[in-house]
């Protein structure tokens, strides 16, 4: 495979198996990283957070387990539960607060 990593070709895999929950931390596993695309699975422990920052890419965050609060712009926020997703345009400052142990698939595209 040219750009996909950390996955076996032609092998079905449950999305829950892509990344394990870790206590008191946030972990990520890269699936694809190119000049124009970054695809990662994230595991978040309840109570952890990611400070607001700008991304040059459009971001899609799909929560497939748990609950996250997405903080963006100056004082806006959305709560995402399992099965929900949000699109954040490039150059919009955003961060994450973890409300419940969670897992997500994040896709960043330039």
Automatic annotation (TrEMBL):
<dbReference type="InterPro" id="IPR014710">
    <property type="entry name" value="RmlC-like_jellyroll"/>
</dbReference>
<feature type="domain" description="Cupin type-2">
    <location>
        <begin position="41"/>
        <end position="102"/>
    </location>
</feature>
<dbReference type="InterPro" id="IPR013096">
    <property type="entry name" value="Cupin_2"/>
</dbReference>
<dbReference type="InterPro" id="IPR011051">
    <property type="entry name" value="RmlC_Cupin_sf"/>
</dbReference>
<protein>
    <submittedName>
        <fullName>Cupin domain-containing protein</fullName>
    </submittedName>
</protein>
<dbReference type="Pfam" id="PF07883">
    <property type="entry name" value="Cupin_2"/>
</dbReference>
